[in-house]
Amino acid sequence: MAQLSMHSPIGDLTISSEDGTIVALDWGWARDQSDEPLLNKAKTQLDAYFDGAEITFDLPLTPAGTEFQRNVWRLMEAIPYGETRSYGDLAKDLNSAARAVGMACGANPIPVIIPCHRILSATGMGGYSGEGGVETKVDLLRLEGVLL
Fold first, then answer.
1. Is 105 a catalytic site residue?
2. DSSP secondary structure string, 18-55?
């Protein structure tokens, strides 16, 4: 697995790729760094995002997960920059339960690029499994201009 780390406003991040696709985005700094073109492209897009560009990520992704989780993540990818949906909205689209959608959000291996931060609970913010928890979710939403 090739990895490239970067600094960001939400902490150090490491992008991982395998077989020509992005497979993970994790908090922290990897020991070994790769100069792979796909990882550099991902870093460039993430830098633009964190600089406030209204960006739609254009990267090949293969997140590991169940079929249900991958269906939830595809719906999340379709949510435009600066917009949100609720766990219940996605659950309706999938004929499922909001709690199951929340569990899939928490299992998202490529946060930010697959924007699980754009999913809110019916009564407020909901959770966030990335480093910094809900505070990081709020920071990402504010970056996108979402009024909280």
1. no
2. ETTEEEEEEES--SS----HHHHHHHHHHHHHHTT---
First and final CA of the chain: distance in angstroms? 38
| Cα(72)–Cα(102) distance, integer angstroms | 9
- Structure-block tokens of residue 22: 């992005």
Model pLDDT for residues 11-42, shown as the tens digit of each residue: 999 999 999 999 999 999 999 999 999 999 99
Return the domain boundaries, the chain.
2-50, 67-143
Q: How far is CA 13 from CA 42, 47, 113, in A?
A: 11, 11, 12
pLDDT tens sequence across 52-64? 999 899 999 999 9
Return the CATH architecture of domain 67-143: Orthogonal Bundle (1.10)
Of these residues, 46, 61, 101, 116, which one is catalytic?
116
SS3 (DSSP) at 125: coil
